[in-house]
Amino acid sequence: MKKEICIITGCTSGLGYEILRGFLKKKSYKIYGISNNIIKIKKTLKNLKDENFNLNYFSLKRVNISNQTEVKNFIKNVIKAEKKIDILISNAGVYGPIGKFEEINSLKWKKAFDINFFGSINMFKEVIPIMKKKNYGKIIQISGGGATKSLPMFTSYASAKVAIVRFAETISDELKKYNININSVAPGALNTIFLDQALKAGPKKTGKDFYKKMLLIKKKGGDDMSRTVDLCLQLSNKKSKINGKLISSLWDKWSNFVNSEKLNRTDVYTLRRIIGGDRKLKKFDV
Fold first, then answer.
1. Vertex 16, ends 249 and 86: CA angle to 5°?
2. Rg for the chain (alpha carbons), in Å?
3. 202 domain residue, yes or no
4. Edge-to-edge, what's the strand order for the sheet holding 246-248?
5. Which helix (H) or strand (E) segment is 9 a member of?
6. How far is 150 from 152, CA to CA, in rounded Å?
7. What's residue 98's pLDDT?
8. Judgement on whether residues 106 and 127 belong to the same structural domain of the protein
9. Roughly how many angstroms between the first and final C-alpha of the chain, as a whole number?
10. How many domains, the chain?
């Protein structure tokens, strides 16, 4: 069986690693993984071998996604070998500086934004023309805290996540006629290195309420990552028709709609402004 070509960014830890494992188990994909951490790359390859995964159809490269030249060269090499790209799972990201906006380093703020927003943009930009030529593609953007609500003390991360989700929805409209489905996935509160970073920052930088919430998540083990893995697999399937949505892997009954185009004609699961009438305050609306 001819394998589909899938790229997964940030696949050497946390959710990205679990997504990678989920796709490797299916054996119907040839996977190109990306990470910017050599140590994690070596550890990931060892762990996968220890778990007896067949790595004949897997390649893992060091690429800084915020560097457009590195991304361009990486994609060029994939195309030279495969002639196509079917799936992109844009997962790579960082928390960036944590704390009051006026007190954090502006350069660190921008660097984190570059990774979380422009890193994804760089991947989209190189992959989309290839998918357009084949008139087919699936792109999944992993969302995060701040995309749908305020996330104080994490301004760079939150700003980048809401920006990339809005971009994903916008570009999905732009590419409708090319049979390219683009969706964002909200994975919930996960017990990953992001959680450890927030706890390490302490309640003074994260805010007391958020810190308490993170402690509780750590204690309970975080939300189930397998739900997000399963959703990514469903959205990558050729049968999936859903497009331009931000889907919660935990709170949405996505198994009821991912293979249907019904919701595509509505604004359900999209970023929208709340008006007075939505909150029994219609007197404030014109």
1. 85
2. 19
3. yes
4. 58-62, 29-35, 4-9, 87-90, 137-142, 180-186, 246-248
5. strand 4-9
6. 6
7. 94
8. yes
9. 58
10. 2
Give dist(CA 211, CA 233) in Å, integer: 32
Residues 81, 84, 86, 89: is their CA dihedral positive or negative?
positive
β-bridge partners, 183: 140
Tell me the CA distances in angstroms from 64 to 70, 76, 121, 258, one per residue in order. Answer: 6, 15, 13, 32
Say if residue 215 is exposed, middle or buried (CB neighbours under 10 Å; 0-12, 13-18, 19+). Answer: middle
Q: How many helices (DSSP H) and strands (DSSP E) are in the chain? A: 10, 7
Q: Please check whether residue 263 lies inside any domain of the structure.
A: yes
Please report the pLDDT score of residue 194 as a whole number.
Answer: 80
Same domain, 147 and 67: yes
The answer to whether residues 182 and 193 belong to one domain is: no
Q: What pLDDT is attached to residue 223? A: 81
Question: Does any domain span residue 197?
Answer: yes
Residues 184 and 195 in one domain: no
pLDDT value at position 221? 85
pLDDT at res. 260: 93
Ranges under pLDDT 70 in the chain: 1
Q: Are residues 232 and 117 in the same domain?
A: yes
What is the span of the domain harbouring residue 203?
Answer: 189-222
Asked if 105 and 156 touch (Cβ cutoff 8 Å), the reply is: no
Task: Report the relative pairing of strands 4-9 and 180-186 from DSSP bridges.
Answer: unpaired
Q: Is residue 136 part of a domain?
A: yes
pTM, whole model, 2 decimals? 0.94
Question: Are residues 102 and 197 both part of a single domain?
Answer: no
CA–CA separation, 113 and 94 (whole Å): 9
